[in-house]
Structures are given as structure tokens and as C-alpha cells.
Write a structure and sequence with these properties.
With about 100 residues, the chain is mainly alpha-helical. It has five helices and no strands. It is elongated, with a radius of gyration of 31 Å. The model has no long low-confidence stretch (mean pLDDT about 80). Keywords: Membrane, Transmembrane, Transmembrane helix.
């Protein structure tokens, strides 16, 4: 952390003017207005960048992943229950 002495702070306050504060407020308002105006464009660019990094899977790939996840979950369930309940789970899985 930087420590300022009193003369530095006083000189900054003396040099700070209302015109500079107005310019700063005007510039920040203009930037905010541009962001609001171009928000749909910026959102679209963000989505496009995400698709470049992580492409969307096809319907077939999504189906295969879902089936694999379901099979793994069933396997975990079968391993965690008693043998008598495992037979019942297998029967339920065969019907589904």
C-alpha cells in the first residue's frame, strides 16, 4: 500500500476542477450508453466465442452421453444395494 503525505493530497485536491469532473462523468456516461446500445452484439460475440472454445454436441452425441450416464448410474446403484434389491433394479431397468 502506498502512503501519501499531506502535501501531495492537498495539491491533488487543488488541481482537481469541476470541469475535469464533468469530463470524466461525460466520458463514463458515453461508455455506458455504448455498452447498452451494443449489448445484443456483445452478447452474440460472447456466445460465438464460447462455441469456438466448447462446440455444441450433435443430437446423437447428446443421446449417447445421456445413455452412458444412465448406465453408469444404474451400475452404481446396483453396486450399492443388497443382492435381493439388485435383481429388482435389473428388472425395472429391463422394462425401461
Amino acid at each position: 500500500m502506498q502512503c501519501y503525505n499531506m502535501s501531495t493530497i492537498i495539491s491533488f485536491v487543488q488541481n482537481f476542477s469541476l470541469v475535469a469532473a464533468g469530463e470524466l462523468a461525460l466520458a463514463s456516461g458515453a461508455v455506458c450508453a455504448l455498452i447498452v446500445l451494443f449489448k445484443p452484439l456483445l452478447r452474440g460475440l460472447g456466445r460465438a466465442a464460447m462455441l469456438v472454445v466448447k462446440p455444441k454436441r450433435s443430437k446423437e452425441e447428446q443421446l449417447q452421453r445421456r445413455q452412458m450416464r444412465d448406465a453408469m448410474m444404474l451400475k452404481r446403484m446396483l453396486n450399492s444395494v443388497e443382492p435381493s434389491q439388485a435383481a429388482e433394479l435389473r428388472a425395472m431397468a429391463a422394462r425401461a
